[in-house]
């Protein structure tokens, strides 16, 4: 059943209340149209009226933008005041008396509207915005049928009227009413300033920094399209398919920000018309990026797997079979392997792109039906050091804050993350906060956008050599302690005293001094001093980090070094501070929370704990394996050794995503049985024996858990193209294996999860439908969830634990054979291995992976822009095109990993973090050779 939602109401102007304010707001009482209204002080008359159910016409106002008062449609009369002020810029006052629709006001509005219409096409019946146009609605409400002004000679914007260059939307300048909403949205919400209006009067027109949208600095977030009151900016999907007739609230399935969305569909054709952001979802507050806003066409891709397929050998052709036949085939193979080789020869990997309920069922099936703890998820290769490092220091394997906390940050320390590319909505929030005065410390080998852009300038950019994170972070801690900038009172109250003395002695050693570390990391000692002082002395300092910290040989040490900084300075437990891992995939936090790990089950409960086992065995009515299972890299190594025989792969593409692909392929080829549950035949499919089709997030119900620990509902928006939902397929396989699973709806699965972990015990679908979302832990002690962790005390038993993490040089050493260091990462337009985004128009911007190289190295190697080169390491090689840029540090090169044609992971290393076996994707010694023409 698909549950319909309502379009969110636009209250005209923003709320006057700060997001995280705990101070009770003073209110005023006024009268609007003879109705008594109470509103917070600082509220505009327009918003107060809207909240009271009184509609005031508007064209330039919207509740996500600062009021402009430009369109003059919202004029009102106020007793005792001269003139007719704009309600969007007039604040409420005690005992104010407002009239919104007197004869005088209506006459003025009609005159103004007729002026607008005199420069606007009269083509409502054939306009794509017919029925959803603000101009049309206001004109209709005013009863305007004819325009008294002569429009025959008006300028029709025939010159450059259309800009169709953007693959997702069209600009039609003839329909523009110069309300400035698009310009303001681009600046105030996205922070891009890609749009402006040139000329004046009838000659005014929207313009970009270049002739066409596609060539400008526009990032296609779609906010301009969303706020446009006419059809001047319009989605091409609406032009093609018409207006939607149903809206469903859901959650974006791209990165770990977890943006709330409204999916607009035509229920008759079962087609998605457009996607818009939800204002009520706290993770994104009404904003989106290009992926979440537009890149959903993969749902309709002809490449979708729609039927199960099987084959005896990977050399055989695929046979399309029924669901029942594929389930029976799978059970037969797995049971035979279990009987012959034992349960330790079987394992599985859960997808971080699917729902928490589906992840939970995969790990449950493996533990119950197949008696193995050989379970892992994609966090192994990205954020497993986060789980380890934060658990060791703070006692909880997750970020400490909510994204609203950004509004209170005074100094950002951004380490190994590129938010504007990989987590664009958070990136936009950071940009807006910096524009209001917050400071930026960037620690990254690359010059990311936040280092320097037209409106943003970092206080300092520590452009360290790859692999030296721990040395640099220890150096900042050294400065803080040596200069007596640490928060002694906080440390006394909140930290584990058994760690403090030894840590302070450790960190004040000369080896951690900026002068020494400057030589190690190839940075300025002055910058290290500056960063340490700024972080420690700002009232609210907040850490944001990403895969540039975790995907290293010493990634977990890097996480602990960051946590040390927060604990030393007391930057925990309140809004505007904390340590915030920017999770890569939409449900990677959820995959970890759901127990898709070899050592922990739901809620990070140890599989070796006798009490935990008894609890799970009682609820699941079976016996369980008592020892830790294999991590994913260990499963692959065991397969090469001939011991590991079968793998259940849920929505992962190892042959493109894992490091050292040659090693991965050899492991897969050595297995007797590989099952793939996915939406597409990916690069791993050639090594599979059975493929089950999977649903997209648009076709199912469930929850995602984002980087804030926020549990968000996913709701089915369109009818599924395949016979079975994923949870049904997993249940059927488990039942065929001998452990019966039977559910009627994903809500029942979630209810089971909530009984197993106290962190989720207060969460139900009903609660999420009521409040929108909650952040775990949500239980009897925290019935409304937990926005900010470690408030009264740090969760770890005994208090926060400062960890002595010494800098250990990377085992990756450049030499004459491999003189450059390769780093990999993401591009704004793509997501992970591009399984989804490569099947959308995002390919228009990024159709291949390219190698970024500094001009110094390009000159030394005699390389030209767009030249094809061979890049090689001790692990493998591939060919790739060169792009020359000064944003890359000499001696390093960078590329993305979105396209299988290049598949840079043939080059990446099998070196890994010692504690978690997370691969080192950020520090690979490589050589580059020109390819003879």
Key features?
933 residues; alpha/beta; seven-stranded mixed sheet; 28 helices
Q: What would your notes on this structure say?
A:
- It is a single chain.
- The chain is α/β, with parallel strands linked by helices and 933 residues long.
- The strands form 10 sheets. A 7-stranded mixed beta sheet has the order 14-13-28-27-26-15-16. A 6-stranded mixed beta barrel has the order 32-36-33-35-34-37.
- It has 28 helices and 37 strands.
- It is 28% helix and 17% strand.
- β24 and β25 form a beta hairpin.
Strands across the major sheet, in which order?
14-13-28-27-26-15-16
Helix content: 25-40%
Largest sheet: 7 strands, mixed
The rounded Rg comes to: 29 Å
Overall 3D form: globular
Structural class assignment: alpha/beta
Number of strands: 37
Q: Whole-Å distance between the termini? A: 59 Å
Average pLDDT works out at 94
Query: Number of helical segments?
Result: 28
Q: Which regions have little confidence, pLDDT < 50, spanning 5+ residues?
A: none
Approximately what portion of the residues adopt beta-strand conformation? 15-25%
Question: How are the elements arranged and paired?
Answer:
Elements: E1 27-32, E2 35-40, H1 45-51, E3 77-78, E4 97-99, H2 103-118, H3 134-141, E5 162-163, E6 169-172, H4 181-190, E7 195-198, E8 205-208, H5 223-227, E9 233-235, H6 236-241, E10 246-251, E11 260-266, E12 271-277, H7 290-294, E13 309-310, E14 319-320, H8 323-341, E15 346-350, H9 356-368, E16 375-377, H10 384-394, E17 411-415, H11 419-422, H12 424-435, E18 439-443, E19 452-453, E20 456-457, E21 460-462, H13 469-482, H14 488-494, H15 497-507, H16 514-521, H17 525-537, E22 541-545, H18 547-550, H19 555-569, E23 579-581, H20 588-593, E24 600-601, E25 605-606, H21 610-620, H22 632-640, E26 646-650, H23 654-657, H24 661-670, E27 673-678, E28 690-693, E29 702-705, E30 710-714, H25 726-737, H26 746-756, H27 765-771, E31 773-775, E32 820-825, E33 850-853, H28 855-860, E34 868-872, E35 877-884, E36 892-896, E37 924-930
Parallel strand pairs: 1-4, 15-16, 15-26, 17-18, 17-22, 18-21, 22-23, 26-27, 27-28, 32-36, 33-35
Antiparallel strand pairs: 1-2, 3-4, 5-6, 6-9, 7-8, 10-11, 11-12, 13-14, 13-28, 19-20, 24-25, 29-30, 30-31, 32-37, 33-36, 34-35, 34-37
């Amino acid at each position: 059943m698909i549950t319909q939602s309502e379009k969110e109401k636009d209250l005209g102007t923003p709320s006057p209340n700060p997001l995280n304010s705990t101070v009770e707001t003073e209110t005023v009482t006024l009268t609007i149209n003879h109705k008594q209204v109470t509103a917070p002080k600082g509220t505009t008359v327009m918003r107060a009226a809207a909240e009271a159910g009184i509609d005031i016409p508007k064209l330039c106002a919207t509740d996500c933008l600062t009021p402009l008062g430009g369109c003059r449609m919202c004029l009102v009369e106020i007793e005792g005041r001269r003139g007719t002020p704009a309600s969007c810029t007039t604040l409420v006052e005690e005992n104010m008396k407002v009239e919104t629709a007197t004869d005088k006001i209506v006459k003025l509005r009609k005159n103004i509207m007729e002026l607008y219409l005199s420069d606007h096409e009269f083509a409502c019946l054939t306009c794509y915005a017919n029925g959803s146009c603000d101009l049309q609605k206001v004109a209709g409400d005013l009863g305007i049928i004819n325009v008294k002004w002569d429009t025959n000679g008006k300028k029709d914007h025939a010159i450059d009227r259309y800009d169709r260059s953007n693959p997702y939307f069209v600009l039609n300048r003839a329909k523009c009413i110069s309300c400035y909403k698009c310009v303001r949205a681009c600046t105030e919400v996205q922070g891009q300033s890609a749009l402006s209006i040139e000329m004046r009067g009838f000659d005014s027109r929207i313009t970009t920094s270049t002739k066409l949208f596609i060539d400008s600095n526009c990032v296609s977030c779609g906010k301009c399209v969303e706020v446009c009151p006419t059809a001047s900016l319009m989605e091409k999907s609406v032009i093609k398919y018409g207006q939607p007739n149903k809206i469903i609230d859901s959650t974006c399935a791209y990165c770990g920000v977890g943006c709330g969305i409204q999916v607009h569909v035509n229920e008759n054709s079962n087609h998605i018309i457009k996607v818009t952001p939800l204002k009520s979802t706290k993770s994104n507050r009404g904003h989106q990026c290009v992926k979440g806003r537009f890149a959903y066409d993969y749902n309709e891709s002809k490449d979708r797997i729609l039927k199960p397929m099987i084959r005896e050998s990977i050399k055989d052709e695929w046979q399309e079979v029924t669901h029942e036949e594929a389930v029976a085939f799978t059970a037969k193979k797995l049971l035979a392997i279990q009987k012959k080789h034992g349960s330790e020869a079987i394992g599985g990997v859960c997808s971080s792109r699917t729902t928490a309920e589906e992840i939970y069922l995969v790990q449950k099936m493996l533990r119950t039906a197949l008696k193995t703890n050989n379970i892992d998820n994609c966090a192994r290769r990205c954020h497993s050091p986060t789980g380890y490092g934060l658990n060791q220091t703070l006692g909880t394997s997750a970020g400490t804050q909510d994204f609203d906390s950004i509004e209170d940050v005074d100094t950002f320390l951004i380490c190994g993350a590129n938010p504007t590319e990989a987590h664009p909505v958070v990136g936009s929030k950071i940009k807006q906060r910096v524009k209001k005065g917050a400071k930026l410390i960037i620690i990254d080998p690359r010059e990311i956008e936040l280092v320097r852009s037209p409106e943003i300038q970092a206080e300092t950019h520590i452009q360290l050599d790859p692999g030296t994170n721990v040395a640099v972070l220890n150096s900042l801690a050294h400065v803080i302690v040596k200069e007596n900038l640490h928060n002694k009172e906080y440390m006394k109250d909140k930290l584990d005293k058994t760690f403090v003395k030894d840590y302070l002695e450790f960190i004040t050693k000369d080896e951690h001094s900026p002068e020494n570390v400057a030589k190690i990391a190839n940075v300025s000692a002055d910058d290290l001093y500056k960063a340490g002082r700024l972080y420690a002395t700002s009232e609210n300092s907040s850490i944001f980090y990403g895969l540039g910290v975790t995907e290293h040989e010493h990634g977990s040490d890097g996480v602990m070094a960051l946590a040390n900084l927060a604990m030393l300075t007391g930057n925990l437990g309140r809004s505007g501070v904390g340590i915030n891992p920017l999770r890569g995939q939409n449900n990677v936090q959820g995959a970890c929370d759901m127990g898709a790990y070899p050592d922990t089950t739901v809620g990070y409960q140890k599989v070796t704990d006798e009490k935990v086992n008894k609890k799970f065995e009682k609820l699941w009515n079976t016996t369980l394996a008592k020892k830790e299972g294999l991590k994913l890299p260990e499963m692959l190594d065991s397969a090469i050794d001939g011991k590991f025989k079968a793998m259940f792969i849920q929505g992962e593409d190892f042959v493109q995503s894992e490091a050292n692909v040659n090693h991965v392929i050899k492991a897969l080829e050595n297995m007797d049985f590989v099952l793939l549950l996915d939406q597409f035949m990916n690069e791993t499919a050639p090594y599979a024996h059975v493929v089950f089709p999977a649903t997209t997030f648009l076709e199912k119900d469930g929850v995602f858990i984002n980087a804030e620990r926020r549990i968000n509902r996913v709701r089915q928006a369109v009818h599924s193209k395949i016979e079975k939902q994923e949870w049904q397929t997993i249940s059927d396989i488990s039942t065929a294996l001998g452990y019966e699973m039977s559910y009627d709806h994903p809500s029942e699965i979630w209810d089971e999860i909530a009984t197993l972990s106290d962190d989720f015990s207060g969460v139900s679908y009903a609660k999420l439908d009521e409040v929108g979302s909650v952040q775990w832990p949500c239980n009897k002690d925290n019935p409304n969830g937990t926005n900010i962790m470690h408030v009264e005390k740090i969760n770890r038993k005994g208090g926060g634990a400062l960890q002595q993490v010494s800098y250990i040089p990377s085992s990756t050493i450049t030499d004459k054979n491999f003189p450059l260091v390769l780093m990999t990462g993401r591009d704004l337009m793509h997501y992970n291995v591009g399984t989804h985004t490569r099947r959308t128009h995002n390919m228009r911007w990024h159709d291949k992976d390219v190698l970024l190289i500094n001009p110094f190295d390009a000159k030394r190697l005699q390389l030209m822009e767009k030249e094809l080169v061979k890049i090689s390491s001790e692990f493998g090689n591939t060919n790739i095109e060169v792009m020359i840029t000064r944003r890359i540090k000499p001696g390093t090169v960078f590329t993305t990993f979105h396209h299988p044609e290049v598949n840079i992971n043939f080059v990446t290393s099998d070196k890994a973090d010692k504690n978690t076996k997370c691969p080192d994707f950020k520090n690979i010694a490589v050589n580059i050779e020109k390819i003879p023409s």
